[in-house]
Amino acid sequence: MPPESSEIMQRKLDMLRQFLLDLEQYAALEPREQRRDHYAIERLLQLLCESSADIGLQLLRRNGHRLAASYREVFLTLRERLDLDEDLANQLMDACAMRNVLTHLYDTIDLDRVIAAIVPAIRVYTDFARWAEQQQ
Question: Which residue of 75, 109, 110, 131 is surrounded by the most CB atoms within 10 Å?
């Protein structure tokens, strides 16, 4: 991988880890406080999805694979072409589906669902960060 590509990947992984640290602070709060801060939590869930997909696109590009057009396609292609674990790929697609609901307001935002997504998101995106780091 060219040095500049490696630096870009490292910056993207560092951002992903920072978003995870920020979300962990909200995981430690009481549900009432989480509800109060739901906009920040929603934004972090969105940023985690977007940064993970961006990392995935970098990996696909680096390995000469065609670029995916959607978040779902990014994780499917990573699974098919770079051996991303199937369960992890499915969990990432589900997590990004939450991002789509939050970003595009397809539906009324269910705060209980947002709060319930915090801990699984931390686990899923931490697993993805570990996997992506091993791909470098």
Answer: 75
